[in-house]
Specification:
The chain folds into two domains: about 210 residues, 3-Layer(aba) Sandwich (Rossmann fold), CATH 3.40.50.2300; about 130 residues, Response regulator (Rossmann fold). The chain starts with a helix and ends in a 5-residue tail after the last strand. Strand 1, helix 2 and strand 2 form a beta-alpha-beta unit. It has a seven-stranded mixed β-sheet, with helices on both faces. By secondary structure, the protein is α/β, with parallel strands linked by helices.
């Protein structure tokens, strides 16, 4: 090959690479920090798949600000240290202007110092620990309900449930401990006695010791907080021990259809606080959005059991889309400021943010909607016509 031809080829390759780089640079990135492996993998993958559906819809309609939306998805392995490292990679290496994550309360709390360090906002889609918006981190915007909001929702059902005394069985992390604190306060304010506060390790397989203690107590109800895989084991082990008390779960990560499939008859009569009830989509704040999402989820071939949790990823991406469009550019500070101004119709409701936390350093919170469902004879029902 002649020198002239080699030069021409080099120029052509450089132009091609430059064009690809320019195209990539023109994409609008959103970092997604979720547990795709480890104890919370089922939930994390549901969230990611919901986010992917939103991104596909957005790109099919022209993207954001005329540019393609690119989700940069990373696995935090259900580990707080890894979640912080993932956040740093997404910001420092992938140069994302905004993130969504990180599923668990402990995972999210581990990420939060990185947001302050790099001044990059994050939309929090699942965690319930009240600490998240109380610490004074202005880069946090939460669409998931904190445990005190869940407790307030549950309070409306107390008169019909007839609960006299409760015991707790909760995962031993910020999520579970926050539930115990906020629900205990609510119960005590309503004259319900609080008994045992049993805890289980993340990834724990045998909860029979804790359940045996609860069986021997004089409570009539067990409040359980953990993700679907561990909850399956709790239900099976409670049934094996002959426990007849009411079992009610919090957190919105129970995936009741998955429980029915995995726990079988052991799931019967259990009740669950959920924040999207796809079995009753007509009762959603925006039934058209809910049904459209459900149709897209089915078309993608995803597990129907994931609908109760995957909607969080779907809603989260649409909230961030609205903020980026309002900002007019993919700039972290512009997006952070725009998040205070959004009003986005989502599956859960119309998302707007109010301030929470120390003055001048407030985080954003949205008061989510939820309901109580029950599993009866392997089917989902709304107790008390809720």
């Amino acid at each position: 090959m002649s020198t002239t031809k080699r030069r021409a080829l080099a120029v052509a390759v450089a132009l091609l690479l430059g064009s690809a780089a320019a195209s990539y640079a023109d994409d609008i990135k959103i970092g997604v920090n979720e547990p795709l492996t480890g104890p919370f993998a089922a939930s994390g993958n549901y969230i990611v798949n919901g986010a992917k559906i939103a991104a596909d819809e957005i790109n099919a309609k022209g993207g954001i600000l005329g540019k393609k939306l690119d989700l940069v998805i990373e696995d935090n392995k259900s580990n707080p240290t890894e979640a912080a490292a993932v956040a740093e990679k997404l910001i420092d290496s992938d140069h994302v202007p905004v993130m969504m994550g990180a599923w668990g309360s402990s995972l999210t709390l581990a990420v939060m110092p990185k947001l302050m360090q790099y001044k990059v906002p994050m939309l929090v889609e699942t965690p319930s620990s009240s600490k998240i918006t109380k610490q004074g981190n202005p880069y946090i915007f939460r669409i998931s309900p904190p445990s005190w909001v869940e407790a307030k929702m549950f309070e409306t059902f107390l008169p019909k449930l007839g609960i006299k005394k409760v015991d707790f069985l909760a995962i031993n992390n910020d999520w579970g401990l926050g539930t115990i604190i906020d629900f205990s306060k609510m119960f005590e304010q309503n004259g319900v006695k609080v008994g045992l506060k049993e805890k289980m390790d993340e990834g724990g397989q045998d909860m029979s010791a804790q359940l045996s203690q609860i069986k021997a107590s004089d409570s009539d109800t067990i409040i359980v907080t953990t993700a679907v895989e561990q909850l399956t084991l709790v239900l099976k082990q409670a049934a094996a021990l002959g426990i007849k008390k009411k079992i009610i779960t919090t957190g919105g990560s129970q995936n009741p259809d998955q429980l029915i499939a995995q726990a079988g008859g052991a799931a019967n009569d259990s009740m669950h606080l959920v924040f999207f009830a796809p079995w009753f989509a007509d009762k959603s704040p925006h039934p058209d959005i809910a049904k459209g999402f459900m149709a897209a989820w089915k078309k993608a071939g995803y597990n129907e059991a994931g609908l109760t949790e995957s909607y969080r990823g779907y809603d989260g991406i649409y909230v961030l889309k609205a903020a980026i469009e309002k900002a007019g550019k993919a700039d972290p500070d512009a997006i952070r400021q725009a998040l205070w101004q959004v009003n986005v119709p989502t599956i859960n409701g119309d998302v707007t943010f109010e301030k929470d936390g120390p003055k001048g350093r407030e985080s954003g919170r949205y008061i989510a909607h939820g309901t109580l469902i029950q599993i009866q004879n392997g089917k989902i029902s709304l107790p008390f016509g809720s």
